[in-house]
């Protein structure tokens, strides 16, 4: 058996790893080239959700994103196209980038609902969305969004994590990683999912990717109880639970101390500790019963069509009001993917979200929270200006529109975005963004800027490489969107 006394100094220095290695280390030290474990990542890092300073001034402190998965038709909702009305029923006069060629046609279908100016700003929006039209003076309507990857998954990834592939952190994870949270008794990043199911790509929509697990979005259920098992069993209530949790916490900490650098273990322990604190805080935050009747009516909780989405919008307001950093509200799988029957399915989708979405902006404003909260509404794409899936029918009852990621609309409000402003445009047919184009990476750079985060400084070292949300060197902060 080897012992310290059984190896002489001479035999140690004579082996292959002895004197040569010592000599090299000595030379490296003398020349200042010996690695510093603290700089080289040799020391374990600790990740948590305590508040972090921004890189610079940022007006935005929180964000609520209403993600309309499937692709709302910008042609029918947000961007009037008189030229399309003239061409309605005729052959499209240019090239079309189809996604589903099997059901494609060249027959132009103009906007199917009337547009009119809204508010003092005069931004034109269609009759499909009267409530959103009523907040035109609060929003920036971006009519020139572009991802250029013409299917749901890739475009969702582009808008949520910056690239067209999965496995990367979403915007909410990056912002909570950069800034932490102002409330240690609630999750920093919350996902409010639709009762009809998760959107395309499932949990990738609120994934932490390769960031530490503590920055993953926490799902709040679409029905009661919105978080399971918040109440302890009767046998553990009160002092018994307190002693039990203290004991478990001590065991967890001893376990973690013996495994430095295990970020997943740290995140799991932090989630256990957060769960205990949430027993009181989360129940209070998610309880809307004490909201005034006027507030409930504002969000449409008195109507079957708007009640469910309205409740989630109201909960989102309550969460950011209590210091939650990022809230995502998702519609269900393909809710806005109107390849067929768009004349009936699009109005239904609009009716569900129009009033609650506008109410969220108005409610935040009247509470003094809109200036510090970014509100986002939009999907991963728009629709094409031609008919899809006529299927032999003489009328348009069966038709829809195919995907279009080359030019589409979304809107933002608050948090430092310009109010009452329509930005950019697609071509005369609504197909390609051509004026003041905003790519997904431009949007991300602008968003981080409003939070006081420098896209080049918000980094995470992975496999020896500094990872960032905004990788495209052409990305810019779109200053025209800023107040």
Structure explained in plain terms:
- This protein starts with 8 loop residues before the first helix and ends in a 16-residue tail after the last strand.
- It is of the alpha/beta class.
- It has helices spanning 9-14, 19-30, 74-77, 82-87, 130-134, 152-161, 171-179, 239-257, 263-286, 293-298, 304-321, 342-366, 440-450; strands spanning 62-67, 104-108, 115-118, 123-126, 139-146, 189-192, 218-220, 326-330, 373-378, 382-383, 386-388, 403-404, 408-413, 421-423, 425-426, 433-435, 438-439, 460-462, 465-467.
- The chain has a single domain, classed as Alkaline Phosphatase, subunit A.
- The strands form 6 sheets. Strands 1, 5, 6, 7, 8, 9, 13, 14 and 17 form a 9-stranded mixed β-sheet that branches. Strands 2-11 form a two-stranded antiparallel sheet.
- The longest helix has 25 residues, at 342-366.
- Helices cover 32% and strands 15% of the residues.
- Helix 8 (239-257) packs antiparallel against helix 9 and helix 11 (304-321) runs parallel beside helix 12 (342-366).
- It is built from 13 helices and 19 strands.
- Strand 15 and strand 16 form a beta hairpin.
Itemize the secondary structure elements and their pairings:
Elements: H1 9-14, H2 19-30, E1 62-67, H3 74-77, H4 82-87, E2 104-108, E3 115-118, E4 123-126, H5 130-134, E5 139-146, H6 152-161, H7 171-179, E6 189-192, E7 218-220, H8 239-257, H9 263-286, H10 293-298, H11 304-321, E8 326-330, H12 342-366, E9 373-378, E10 382-383, E11 386-388, E12 403-404, E13 408-413, E14 421-423, E15 425-426, E16 433-435, E17 438-439, H13 440-450, E18 460-462, E19 465-467
Parallel strand pairs: 1-8, 1-9, 5-14, 5-17, 6-7, 6-8
Antiparallel strand pairs: 2-11, 3-4, 5-13, 9-13, 10-12, 15-16, 18-19
Helix pairs in contact: 8-9, 11-12
């Amino acid at each position: 058996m080897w012992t310290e006394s059984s190896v002489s100094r001479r035999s140690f220095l004579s082996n292959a790893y002895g004197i040569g290695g010592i000599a090299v280390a000595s030379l490296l030290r003398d020349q200042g080239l010996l690695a510093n474990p603290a700089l080289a990542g040799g020391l374990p890092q600790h990740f948590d959700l305590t508040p972090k300073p921004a890189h610079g001034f940022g007006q935005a402190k929180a964000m609520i994103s209403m993600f309309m998965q499937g692709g709302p038709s910008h042609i029918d909702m947000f961007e009037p196209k008189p030229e399309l009305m003239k061409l309605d029923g005729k052959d499209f006069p240019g090239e079309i980038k189809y996604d589903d060629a099997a059901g494609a046609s060249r027959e132009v279908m103009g906007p199917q609902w009337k547009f009119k100016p809204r508010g003092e700003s005069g931004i034109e929006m269609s009759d499909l969305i009267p409530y959103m039209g009523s907040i035109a003076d609060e929003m920036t309507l971006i009519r020139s969004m572009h991802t250029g990857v013409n299917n749901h998954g890739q475009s969702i990834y582009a808008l949520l994590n910056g690239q067209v592939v999965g496995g990367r952190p979403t915007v909410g994870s990056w912002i909570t990683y950069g800034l932490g949270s102002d409330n240690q008794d609630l999750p920093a990043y919350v996902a409010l999912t639709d009762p009809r199911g998760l959107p395309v790509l499932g949990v990738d929509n609120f994934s932490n990717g390769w960031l530490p697990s503590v920055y993953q979005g926490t799902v709040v259920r679409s029905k009661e109880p919105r978080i399971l098992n918040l109440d302890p069993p009767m046998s553990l209530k009160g002092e018994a639970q307190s002693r039990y949790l203290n004991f478990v916490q001590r065991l967890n900490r001893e376990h973690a101390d013996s495994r430095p650098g295990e970020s997943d273990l740290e995140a799991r322990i932090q989630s256990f500790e957060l769960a205990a604190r949430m027993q009181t805080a989360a129940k209070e935050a998610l309880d809307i019963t004490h909201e005034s009747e006027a507030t409930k009516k504002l969000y449409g909780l008195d109507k079957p069509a708007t009640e469910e989405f309205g409740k989630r919008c109201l909960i989102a307001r309550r969460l950011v009001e209590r210091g939650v950093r990022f809230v995502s509200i998702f519609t269900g799988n393909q809710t806005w993917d109107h390849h067929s029957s768009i004349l009936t399915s699009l109005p239904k989708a609009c009716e569900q979200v129009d009033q609650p979405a506008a109410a969220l902006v108005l409610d935040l404003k009247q509470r003094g929270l809109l200036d510090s909260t970014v509100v986002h509404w939009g999907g991963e794409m728009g629709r094409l200006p031609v008919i899809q899936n006529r299927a032999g029918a003489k009328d348009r009852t069966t038709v829809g529109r195919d995907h279009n990621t080359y030019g589409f609309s979304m809107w933002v409000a608050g948090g430092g975005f310009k109010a009452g402003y329509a930005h950019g445009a697609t071509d005369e047919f609504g197909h390609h963004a051509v004026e003041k184009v905003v790519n997904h990476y431009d949007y991300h750079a602008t968003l981080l800027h409003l939070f006081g985060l420098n896209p080049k400084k918000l980094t995470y070292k992975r496999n020896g490489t500094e990872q960032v949300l905004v990788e495209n060197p052409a990305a810019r902060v779109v200053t025209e969107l800023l107040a």
